[in-house]
Amino acid sequence: MARRQERSARTRATLIAAAAQHFDDAGYNSTSLAQVCETAQMSVGAITFHFASKADLADAVEHEGKARARTVLESTGTAAAALKAVVELTVAFAELLESDVMVRAALRLARERTTTDLLTEVWLPAVATPVGRAYALGLLGADVSARDVVDLAEYLARGAEARWRTSPPLPQHSRRLERVCELALRGVRLDGQGVAATS
User: Fold this and answer.
1) For the segment 163-175, what is each residue's pLDDT rounded down to a tens digit?
2) In Å, how far are 77, 121, 142, 161, 182 from 193, measured between CA atoms?
3) Do 41 and 34 contact (CB within 8 A), yes or no?
């Protein structure tokens, strides 16, 4: 029984991984279950056993993408100074774009199917925590609210995704984004200095 469950779980994971490749490359509407089966080297029966429809499969990809993002982001920036943590979270998101097709597929699916994406559900709450800390410590400029900083971080992250989608990846994409984030957040600091040593 346990062996059968393990085999079923492996089959399901293989189908989700194959679907993520197609959803990332071609989007929801241009991906067929037959294509996913061919990539996974499984029968149509295997996919319909695990997923009632293409929408059900897409839900599973989005769920997995969010789970992977949550795992990475929950361990990012926890020991960093407040605004430095925002930079680290933004860079971690860019690195996920570079390395994890499941995360990219989840983002694209959410946009195409108008569901809540992982940036909104997972990343923004993670960013809001250190931003709130910076605000409470009086580290932001007098005319800068915590919401302003969260919005700025979101624009940077969504810009990173758009850059990834529309242009060939730049060398050291995430490191370049780190520099842009540091420059942007310098403007919200009370003293206008860098973010590395901010409490």
Assistant:
1) 888 876 666 677 7
2) 19, 31, 15, 27, 10
3) no
